[in-house]
Amino acid sequence: MGIIPLRRQSLGSASQLLAAAFFEYPMFTYYFPEPSKRSRILPWYLRNVLKCALRYGEVLTTPETAGVLFALPPGHTSLSIREYARNGFFFTPFVLGPHRYKRSMDCESFADRIQKEVMGSRPHYYLWGVAVGPRHQGEGIGSALMHAHLERVDSEQMAVYLETHSARNIGYYERYGFELVLETSIPKHGLPIWCMQRKPAGVASGDS
Predict the structure, then answer these.
(1) Can you give the residue range of the structural domain that contains 188?
(2) What is the per-residue pLDDT across 23-55, written as a single tens digit (0 to 9) for each?
(3) Residue 125 belongs to a domain with what CATH number?
């Protein structure tokens, strides 16, 4: 299966795919509880996420844009407010409203802090997200995207970090060598979060 870098002209279709795939994802149902509002905001929100990943990291897809993987590289695994704003998030407080904006900022700040605590100064990739369009589930697209990304990671002898807000994703990532390193919830919000890492190729489980 062919895996290619996402082109900017495919941002629209890729963001729509992600919005469909993540529509019931716990983080987004918490940010945007009303389905009608979520359906309007998610494509815009995820388009901006992809713009950030394109600028600072990598975004992989298929020729038909049937799945998307987006990641940030070692040395740039978190973004500043200015970097987010430069890539479309400037209007987030107005789009979300003050209450939802604060909610999202609390959760994103906590996730960023946990990543730094777990990984410390170790260079690593941040696997920001991976999704396959609902109509293409079961075709091996997610596996092809993961293998393409991890092939690059392993060639550089790098670790990978990710977090998920869905417990059912844990087993999926374990199949690719990720280990659960922390299970907690976001203070004041109660949103569960599971943090996982994949050690560099050749490093045994339990080794640092």
Answers:
(1) 4-198
(2) 999 999 999 999 999 999 999 999 999 999 999
(3) 3.40.630.30
